[in-house]
């Protein structure tokens, strides 16, 4: 297994574990304000993991794809994040 793929998989497992842990904390707290605060912290985790895993994947493919394709991929990620932030 390539190291880039392994790191991507491990980061996704970490992200999923964080999501499940926060969901459990929200459930146990039984408080809407605390749940909203915890949920807002998750808003930072998702995009960060997306950017890091994509960066790792692209760096692993850097010999196989052109610079223009890498630029298009990163531009797509930026547009996804901008779209998530818009109302």
Biggest sheet descriptor: none
**What share of the residues does DSSP label as strand, in percent?**
under 5%
As an assembly, this protein is: single chain
Amount of helix: over 70%
Principal-axes shape call: flat
User: End-to-end distance, in Å?
Assistant: 41 Å
The total count of strands amounts to 0
Give the tally of structural domains: 1
Broad structural category: mainly alpha
Q: Kindly provide the radius of gyration, computed on alpha-carbon positions and rounded to a whole number of angstroms.
A: 16 Å
| Count of helical regions | 3
Q: Mean pLDDT, as a whole number?
A: 89
Q: Runs with pLDDT <50, length 5+?
A: none
Q: List the helices and strands in order.
A: HHH
Keywords: Membrane, Transmembrane, Transmembrane helix
Organism: Ureibacillus thermosphaericus
Transmembrane segments: 39-61, 67-84
Protein name: DUF2619 domain-containing protein
